[in-house]
Structures are given as structure tokens and as C-alpha cells.
Design a protein that fits this description.
The protein has 119 residues and is α+β, with helices and mostly antiparallel strands. The protein has 2 helices and 8 strands. A 3-stranded antiparallel β-sheet has the order 1-2-5, with no helix packed on it. A 3-stranded antiparallel β-sheet has the order 6-7-8, covered by helices on one side. It has a two-stranded antiparallel sheet with strand order 3-4. The longest helix has 27 residues.
């Protein structure tokens, strides 16, 4: 009895540990605010806290024109957004990967980001 409970509890802890942190990393890398200026734009990501596994603060990145690569992709957390190719992935050396959910922001955001990418 004790052994079976131990195995079941271990399995539950393992599944939680495998499922939660990768999703939290993607959610922490999702843009909540984008503010454009002349030669750069600022992206603010959200904080996420899931005790005791994850405690990540919000990040603010100042991204210069032409210093990132823009890729259309699907959002990795299907329980948040389950549309194919509904996200843009900003990739750069200084900030890693940032997901931008284009359906959440104003129209024309994709085109504006593409303009900043090519500059």
C-alpha cells in the first residue's frame, strides 16, 4: 500500500514538474506591451509565479531596428491560444525569443514589426 502511494505521488510530481515549467517559460516570454519610437521599440513581458516551481519577473527589452529576426509560428501553449500561425517570434542575441500574439494587439502590428526588422 505504501509503495503504491509513493509511486503514484512520484508520478504526479513528475508530471507536474515536466508540464508546468516549459509552459511558464513561454508565457514569461510573451509580449504584453509594445511601444514604438523612432529607431527602436520596447517590449514588456509578463511575470509568472507558480509556487514552488516558477518565480519569474517581467522583462523589459529595448530592441533596435534590424537587430532581430521575425518568424511566424504557433504559440507553444495551446491552452492559451490554439490558432495555427497566430504568433510572431522575435529572435535576437540580446533577448532570446519573445512571442507576440498578433491577434491581441492592434491591426498593422505585423507590418510595423516587419518594417523594423528590415531596417
Amino acid at each position: 500500500m505504501f509503495f503504491s502511494m509513493f509511486v503514484l505521488l512520484s508520478l504526479i510530481i513528475y508530471v507536474i514538474y515536466v508540464q508546468i515549467p516549459p509552459r511558464c517559460k513561454a508565457i514569461n516570454s510573451t509580449a504584453l506591451e509594445i511601444i514604438f519610437s523612432d529607431n527602436s521599440f520596447r517590449v514588456t513581458t509578463g511575470a509568472i509565479k507558480v509556487w514552488p516551481l516558477v518565480d519569474k519577473e517581467a522583462n523589459v527589452w529595448h530592441i533596435q531596428k534590424g537587430s532581430f529576426v521575425l518568424t511566424r509560428t504557433s504559440y507553444p501553449v495551446k491552452s492559451v491560444v490554439d490558432l495555427d500561425n497566430s504568433a510572431l517570434l522575435l529572435s535576437g542575441k540580446e533577448f532570446g525569443n519573445i512571442y507576440v500574439l498578433v491577434d491581441v494587439f492592434e491591426r498593422g502590428l505585423r507590418e510595423k514589426l516587419m518594417m523594423y526588422e528590415k531596417s
